[in-house]
Design a protein that fits this description.
By secondary structure, this protein is α/β, with parallel strands linked by helices. About 35% of the residues lie in helices and about 25% in strands. The protein is built from 17 helices and 19 strands. The strands form three sheets. Strands 2, 3, 4, 6, 7, 16, 17, 18 and 19 form a nine-stranded mixed beta sheet that branches. Bound molecules: N-(iminomethyl)-L-glutamic acid (NIG) and fe (iii) ion. It is an enzyme of class 3 (hydrolase).
């Protein structure tokens, strides 16, 4: 008896399964192992993978449903949907003017000190309704999906009052319930000190811990708690206080660490056994070694280095030191306005000297580990979500080679076609 399936993809020239032990992130040699099946096939029922292997074998095992659902990949590359583990997707307004100011020589920090940067987006976001944020978020998610992303982490952090942070996180939940892409919410109340607290940042930290965090937890609006640990944002001491309070309330810590300066954010993340430390452009070897020992994921965001004109994080060095690495877009209006994981993979190879295979692992299964979702997504294995991307490429190494274009041919989310390059985003009729 053949298993009935409602999705069958056959003749993947290279089926990148990323199969392997999923109890911990891939490091060192395992980072470069894509577990490729030549002429591969994958089948799904009810959104879950039920058969995977060489096409001839899978065709023996399954019977496709009557209403079609068969995709002939025609020799193309097939891989898990990208997991983007770090975005600031919910915001209003635009930072186009600041972009021009930076091109003319102003630095990100100078613009921030003058009341622009995060605070300029905060003003626009406070003025926007939840529905307006939802609508803008929906359009951005369509673009992420078109670039192969099927799961995305989204941070609050442009509200910075209780009501405005709750508004943003509620929008994240509504989007996750209604859009094909799955959203994982993170509370980033410690993104910037809002102007009403500028005279006493410690008072803002106390308010965040005593009032904002409990309100977020009360409505069960976040999985993680994040802090921007940086000169001009939050000190390591303030960051520790926020993250420890988050932990106590059940939110795993994440840190924007050592992005623009080395404040010891990597070591702090390791000490707190944070699930990830993100950015790390300025992280020291000692900080990285501490992360390797603690198993803390380095979430690398090369779009930010490119966009700010900064040296890339030392990805190759991290891999050599045994630090688990993941890749994300950092999609946000000020420092990385890209929704393209393929572009991020290219930058990781060209700017950080990751191999194409390492970068793909970092953008799929390791990215899933960075948001505690590796049991469900990030690799193509029996029982996992049928979140699958077909790339219009003959070899996975072409993915970073053809930088700056979208190679996505088809995206399948939970066993259903969600995007096709020739037809756009697919909505059930
Ligand atoms: O990850 N570093 C802090 N947060 C964002 C930037 C946000 C902004 O400039 O609006 C980042 O780069
Ligand atoms: Fe960020």
């Amino acid at each position: 008896m053949k298993t009935d399936v409602d999705l069958l993809i056959v003749h993947a020239g290279q089926l990148l399964t990323l199969a392997g032990p999923n109890d911990r992130p891939r490091t060192e040699k395992a980072l470069g192992d894509l577990a490729i099946i030549p002429d591969g096939a994958v089948a799904a029922a009810d959104g879950v993978i039920v058969a995977i292997g060489p096409t001839a074998q899978v065709l023996d095992e399954v019977a496709p449903g009557r209403d079609g659902g068969v995709i002939d990949a025609g020799g193309r590359v097939v891989l898990p949907g990208f997991v983007d583990p770090h975005t600031h997707l919910i915001f209003a307004g635009s930072r186009a003017e600041e972009f021009e100011m930076r091109l003319a020589g102003a630095t990100y920090q100078q613009i921030s000190h003058a009341g622009g940067g995060i605070l300029s987006t905060m003003r626009a976001t406070r003025a926007a309704s939840e529905d307006e944020l939802l609508k803008a978020g929906w359009q951005r998610l369509d673009r992420l999906l078109a670039h192969g992303t099927t799961t995305v982490e989204v941070k609050s952090g442009y509200g910075l009052t209780i009501d405005d942070e709750l508004k943003c996180l509620r929008a994240v939940h509504r989007l996750s319930a209604s859009h094909d892409v799955d959203l994982i919410p993170t509370f980033l109340g410690a993104h910037a000190v809002p102007p009403e607290h500028s005279r006493d940042p410690d008072a803002y930290v106390r308010f965040l811990i005593d009032e904002m965090l409990p309100a977020v937890v009360e409505e069960d609006l976040a999985e993680f708690c994040d802090v921007f640990c940086e000169a001009g944002a939050f000190t390591p001491e303030q960051s520790r206080a926020v993250l420890e309070a988050g932990l106590e309330a059940g939110l795993d810590p994440k840190i924007h660490a050592d992005e623009l300066s080395d404040l010891g954010g990597a070591a702090l993340a390791a000490d707190l056994e944070a699930i990830s430390a993100d950015h790390l452009l300025c992280a020291s070897d000692d900080g990285l070694r501490a992360m390797a020992d603690a198993g803390t994921m380095a979430v690398l965001l090369p779009g930010t280095a490119l966009f700010l004109g900064l040296p890339y994080a030392r990805g190759r060095r991290m891999v050599e030191l045994g630090v688990p690495v993941a890749l994300g877009t950092d999609f946000n209006p000020g420092t990385s306005p890209t929704w393209s994981m393929p572009m991020v993979i290219a930058l990781a190879c060209l700017g950080m000297r990751l191999t194409p295979a390492e970068a793909i692992t970092a953008a799929t299964i390791n990215a899933a580990h960075a948001i505690a979702a590796a049991e469900e997504v990030g690799s193509l294995e029996l029982g996992k979500a049928a979140d699958i991307v077909v790339l219009d490429l003959p070899d996975y190494r072409h993915l970073p080679m053809h930088f700056g274009v979208n190679p996505v041919h088809t995206v399948v989310k939970r066993g259903q076609p969600a995007f096709r390059a020739d037809r756009g985003v697919q909505r059930p009729t």
